[in-house]
Hints:
Layout: E1 2-7, H1 15-30, E2 33-37, H2 41-46, E3 49-52, H3 83-92, E4 97-102, H4 104-115, E5 120-124, H5 140-161, E6 164-169, H6 176-185, E7 189-191, H7 199-211, E8 217-221, E9 234-238, E10 244-246, H8 249-261, E11 265-269, H9 281-299, E12 305-310, E13 313-318, H10 319-324, H11 331-338
Parallel strand pairs: 1-2, 1-4, 4-5, 5-12, 6-8, 6-11, 7-8
Antiparallel strand pairs: 2-3, 9-10, 12-13
Amino acid sequence: MKIGIxxxxxxxxxxxxxxxxxxxxxxxxxxxxxxxxxxxxxGVVEGDFTSITRHDVRGxxxxxxxxxxxxxxxxxxxxxxxxxxxxxxxxxNGIEAIIAIGGEGTLAAAQRLTDAGLRIIGVxxxxxxxxxxxxxxxxxxxxxxxxxxxxxRLRTTAxxxxxxxxxxxMGRHVGWIALHSGxxxxxxxxxxxxxxxxxxxxxxxxxSVRERGRAPLIVVAEGFKLDTMEEAHSHLGLDAFNRxxxxxxxxxxxxxxxxxxxxxxRHTVLGHxxxxxxxxxxDRVLATRLGMHAVDAAYDGAWGSMVxxxxxxxxxxxxxxxxxxxxxxxxxxxxxxxxxxx
Length: 342
């Protein structure tokens, strides 16, 4: 079998480990031939790919980013887009299946293409950990480690100047990065999309911390909304899938906190630092296992399925199940963290 691999959407630590795991499993167990599409769906639409051999993936699991490149291209748009054109390109090049490594947008596109008859296996990739059909996705644990280190560093400068620090982390629809890093770093409030909150309650936590002689530190997910806001804060336009590019809520909150409490407040947006660098050991192992099982799913003919982590086992579910709902932070998990606020 000749399989094409792509990485699409936002990059994250562990993508290269998936590629390595898939190639090694395919070559060793099935004598598979692999090609890699450059720049995600863009490479599929344009027929831009390169051969991937066992030699090409040597030592790749520890490398961040993706050797194939990524983009937020919509495979249904453009002169060469759409399932008919893509299938024609695959047939002309003898490519029998695609392993699509990506998040919500990538897998939604993969589902539509599968419904049109293409042979695709999905691998979940999202540092947000927002796909409901998997317990955890690779890249999340590394992002949490990076955010936790940022909290530790911000705490020292906050204490030095007796300031309030507001750290913005990623999390479009769900607050897992904020929740885990905030708990690990001892944040005094954690603000997530699932739990709108009023500015007065936030300031109550800030005042409580100051009264104890501490410098307040707040972690906020980019998708958090104040209870007076109808939509998450965005001023950066739309991406290729017509979703708002979020960011800037920390910059909005810091002056509001300072105005109401009189405490000098500063904001920091962690941004793409969360996506960069080498993956953690946990993410290397998880990504490698997902890549290996994706190849098995292809040989099982489980088209339209996605490999997933359930407990400590790798299983397969339909892509439709993966993109049908979000893995939101449940109320009881937020209530646990809330005990630690203030």
